[in-house]
Amino acid sequence: MTSTKRKGADGEPDGNEVGKKLKKKEDDNDSHPPTLQSEAGRFQGDDDATMLLLFHDLYYSINTFAGKYFIGSPYVQPRKSKDKDFFGSLTSNYGTYLTSKTEKAKETIIQAVIWNKLMDPLLKQPTKAFLQIPEALIKNNLSDDCEEFYSWRTLTANMLSKKYKGRTSWVNGGPRRQEWVKEMATLLSDLSVVNQRARLQGSLEEIADLAIKLATAMACSRAGWVCTMKDPRIQRLNGFRITTDRMEDIDLWDEDEGHGKSMTVDLVKSPMLLKFGNSNGEKYDQCLVARLAEVVVVRRKTTD
């Protein structure tokens, strides 16, 4: 399928104005390693199997949560302005997903919500779980030396991950983890078939536990593991170029497959898992795709 990037009339990705601002703000605050040309391929290393297993466990838990609590009515949209703004930053068509009776439509956007809410506080920069110093500050003092940066990150993670108890802690009962669970239960309760925050919080605790395990493993690895909802070549929350080495279309709407400019990515359901370098702490200029992003592709709207 030919590569393309979704654009609106003004040249920006489709979505409401607030959604665009949220995307730009996240782009500006991105703490990923320097953008490198990446490619799909095989990857080898002692921790590869472990990392994929941890990612799969989290992925399965999120899918199970969405399937258990968000199949069927109520088919409603968020009421608070800040919640509308957040959903609008994921896709301009969030109302269609939340109110559609198409199988898995509502589940799909709920899964996207959870993954996105895990990115900034944890998975995009896994050392946030036990380090209050931004990684960007460290990188700025290392002259973009990837090997030095990852050596620092690995040593720091191994020293602090089992002992840190500060305000950003994601361990069981940790302040940031509790904040995340409560925030997510509040955001999702009105959309759930049970509308009981206590029940949602129990399952969200399990998701948080699996997320911190994945983040800790990513941070402690000598390779540069990155979990991201954005294509590293264009640094956008959605609007992936349509390219099969980065993403997989889940065929949600059963539209006839199109080509080139006729199709666009409407929603990123789950992230890519990227591996910069190898497990021996070498070759950080290489990046392999360990797990494709899952996306919803739709036919681009035409204007008369």
Automatic annotation (TrEMBL):
Biased composition (Basic and acidic residues): 17-31
Chain residue ranges for the region called Disordered: 1-42
Name the UniProt record assigns to this protein: Uncharacterized protein
Species for this entry: Diaporthe ampelina
